[in-house]
Amino acid sequence: MKVLVTGALGFIGSHVVEALTAAGHEVTAYDALLPAVHPDPHAARTRLPAGVPLIEADVRDPAPLRDAVRAVDAVCHQAARVGLGLDLGDAPDYAGCNDLGTAVLISAMAAANVRRLVLASSMVVYGEGRYDCAMHGQVEPGPRAESDLLAGQFEPQCPMCGLPLSPGFVMEEAPLDPRNVYAATKAAQEYLTSAWARAAGGSAAMLRYHNVYGPRMPRDTPYAGVAAIFRSALAAGRAPRVFEDGGQRRDFVHVRDVAAANVLALEWTADAGTGWSRAFNVGSGTPHTVGDLAAGLAKATGGPTPVVTGEYRLGDVRHVTASNERLRKELGWEPAVDFGDGLAEFADSSPSSP
Fold this sequence. Notes:
By secondary structure, the chain is of the alpha/beta class. Helix content is 36%, strand content 19%. It has a seven-stranded parallel beta sheet with strand order 3-2-1-4-5-9-14, with helices on both faces. A four-stranded mixed beta sheet has the order 7-6-8-17, with no helix packed on it. Strands 10-13 form a two-stranded parallel sheet. A hairpin with a 3-residue loop joins strand 6 and strand 7. The chain is globular, with a radius of gyration of 20 Å.
């Protein structure tokens, strides 16, 4: 299959390109090489496997995107601005990169009659994860109050009785509840994708990535995730600073497992019915706390013990972990990288390594 991969030189996109190429697909890479993401464009270009052509252009620019889409059978859309988007002043940039970019892409795909799309979405579309109350069953907690966070009350409580809640695994059927600008744009990408599938008779897999980590993860940029932030601190001889009490549950999934999910999702779109879009959680299925992550990286690097600070960010959620049952059953995916092994590899890797 001829596949266009947007955001192909990024952390996840570059691994997706490798996985698709290894699976026998003919890949064209597409990336704007934005300075905020790629401070060293030459190093980024070296990530491409031999023989993979690169189109240096922005997905918001219709002309080069139309030309690129005409030459392929499917698109794997990884390009996006990431991060929480806590500052509302950044909203135009997030909406432009993520939502306008996706709108330009699906317009080009419709015009070229390209009907297979894999979208990189995110677990942030859920807001908080699943919670159960001993008295009231599954409940949806409201946004956490700053007064509670200031008092060190980080765990959501039942909105009906105030009892502590037990976190569980969120399913794809859960309602979307984006709680920051970035999350809102990822939800909008999903809605645009679903609208395209219905209107154009396409098939789309929307992959809701959980906390992806691994080689090439950016650091010291606005795109750095918590794992990269911890690793950067350890590399500088500083203790990782863990927000809240370190008990926030996440699903840390290795980037090579995410790339494998993209390959299977692309192949799924070839068999899915027309007008069909489907979301899949992409997570390891094994929760770990942010404190676990910091401690694991400190151990792997021989660095200082993490410091739990009690600091918080209003846009953060407390717990969100994935059920990957749909991805396993319908696409035959299995996570292959053990958390401990993945952390050890990540601790030794460079963000710019090929």
